[in-house]
Design goal:
The chain is an alpha/beta fold and about 300 residues long. It folds into 2 domains: about 180 residues, FAD/NAD(P)-binding domain (3-Layer(bba) Sandwich), CATH 3.50.50; about 100 residues, 3-Layer(bba) Sandwich (FAD/NAD(P)-binding domain), CATH 3.50.50. It is built from 6 helices and 19 strands. The strands form 5 sheets. Strands 1, 2, 5, 6, 7, 8 and 19 form a 7-stranded mixed beta sheet that branches. A 5-stranded parallel beta sheet has the order 10-17-11-12-13, with helices on one face. Strands 14-15-16 form a 3-stranded antiparallel beta sheet, with no helix packed on it. The mean pLDDT is about 95.
């Protein structure tokens, strides 16, 4: 029986692991990998202490820091179920079963993808899923945003501060975003293209164009970057029915303690019901969750 099990090896999980180790808690961290979404960012330019760092290098730094402490790590192992017992929790993975008096869930989220040719090829080479991470990299360039909801239109509006030209593409006949946002985008000179289907991304080493179908005709937008803003899915299937989730499937937490609806289960990072999903926010949440889990166990 361990004191604590942390689920997830992203920024929140690593931060929680570092803090729990420093508190001398008997901790097991279970992670499918230590790359996650951060590894999809070519460059990170908004994490304090690093003016510009590759996403993979930052992820490696988090893991290396974690491993410098006395903490047990089970990598390449996926959690499939969490079971609440009388006064402890059972965590079932694809390789075994573990028990602990408290849990911190930092399982993150999966960015929804278009699933079209060359999307993976140009990831980090023109294609991005994080406007805050990469917007400044496209100053003075032509960029596209895919997604007509609030997130997509907000991203397009934000990009007008940097980019030379901004295109917004949406597969439906009309945008679902708030009208005030649409008006703002139009006022800032953004070009909106609806009822179109993205069929391919093209280019050499870097992204050079977005190919789409509209009215039965194939068109190509010559752009240097494309932000895909069609949402994300939190990794919470294994805790459905255990802790409270919101309508997006995110874990509902107390914003002061990051404790869930179940006493002894905490959560942090992109998996929780906070609007802003950022590396620096996730690391802070992981630290708070670990400190609060320590107080709970004490």
């Amino acid at each position: 029986m361990r004191d604590l099990i942390i689920i997830g090896g992203g920024p929140a999980g690593c931060s929680a692991g570092i803090y729990s180790a420093r508190k001398k808690l008997d901790t097991l961290l279970i992670a499918k990998d230590f790359t996650g979404q951060i590894g999809h960012s070519a460059w990170v330019e908004n994490y304090p202490g690093f003016e510009r760092v590759k996403g993979l290098d930052l992820a490696k730094g988090f893991k290396s820091h974690l491993e410098s402490f006395d903490i047990e790590i089970n990598e390449f192992e996926e959690v499939v179920e969490v079971v609440k017992k009388k006064d402890f929790f059972s965590v079932i993975t694809d390789e075994g079963e573990y028990e602990a008096r408290a849990l911190i869930i930092c399982s993150g989220a999966k960015t929804k993808k278009l699933g079209v040719p060359n999307e993976e090829k140009f990831l980090g080479k023109g294609i991005s899923y994080c406007i805050t991470c990469d917007e400044s990299s496209f100053e003075g360039k032509n960029v596209a945003v895919v997604g007509g909801g609030n997130a997509g239109v907000e991203a397009a509006v934000e990009l007008t501060r940097f980019a030379k030209r901004v295109y917004l593409l949406e597969c439906e006949e009309s945008l679902s975003a708030d009208e005030v946002l649409v008006e703002r985008l139009q006022k800032e000179g953004g070009k909106i293209i609806t009822a179109c289907e993205i069929t391919e991304f093209k280019g050499g080493e870097e992204l050079e164009g977005v190919v789409y179908m509209k009215d039965g005709k194939e068109e190509t937008l010559e752009v240097d970057g494309c932000f895909i803003e069609i949402g994300s899915k939190p990794n919470t299937d294994f805790v459905k029915g255990v802790v409270d989730l919101n309508d997006k499937g995110e874990i509902v937490v107390d914003p002061k303690t990051f404790e869930t609806s179940v006493k002894g289960i905490f959560a942090a990072g992109d998996v929780v019901d906070f609007k802003d999903k950022q590396i620096v926010i996730a690391t802070g949440q992981g630290a708070i969750a670990a400190l609060c889990a320590y107080r709970h166990l004490s």
